[in-house]
Amino acid sequence: MPKIFGEIIKRERIGLFFGGAIFTILLLSAALLSAAELNIPFGRSYNYSDILVKRVIDGDTFVLENGERLRLIGIDTPELHMSDKLRRDSQRARKDVSTIQRMGRQAYEFTRNLVEGKRLRLEFDLERHDRYGRLLAYAFLKDGTFVNAEIIKQGYASLMTIPPNVKYADLFRQLYQEARENRRGLWR
After folding, report:
1. Is the pLDDT of residue 162 over 90?
2. pLDDT digits (tens, 9 = 90+) for 21-50
3. Which residues make beta-bridge pairs with 160?
4. Choosing from 105, 112, 134, 180, which is the catalytic residue?
5. 37 catalytic, yes or no?
6. Rounded CA gap, 173 and 179, in Å?
7. Which of 45, 102, 140, 152 could form a disulfide linkage to 175, CB 3.0–4.6 angstroms apart?
8. What is the pTM of this model?
9. Active site includes 13?
10. In terms of DSSP H, where are the helices of 38-165?
11. Catalytic annotation on 12?
């Protein structure tokens, strides 16, 4: 009798295990289908041809509606927030930290006015993420404005070309030289 009782308990445990696993699979499948039907992002797949900029962090980085951080390819704006990079930029430019932060504030304001609360189409190069896990892309407003290029053209960014993401490097170099020569934005 005890042996039979033990076999019954063992079968019930196995049944519970497999039943629970099947329930979990069904639940996940339903969640995936619901997310797809409702156009809700699940994981890292998302429609980047029409995405909202929720918040601008600084002159070259945003938070998108799906929570991802986007870092614009090919440009570098002065640091706004205290960091090791701010200190390095200060030393490299031979300007005090507060001057770099003021420039960072100007770049931030320009970028915020350009994209915050607006929808973008993102274009990717060879690498999709940087070492910090941020999404790397070229951004275009719905009216066709090339955001990365516009920030450089108006004088609020320097060049930051990191291979293999060099698709628009020549265009960015030309716009940067013109902005410097014409004393636009930060180059006044």
Report:
1. yes
2. 555 454 445 444 444 443 444 455 689 999
3. 74
4. 134
5. no
6. 10
7. 152
8. 0.76
9. no
10. 84-93, 97-115, 147-153
11. no
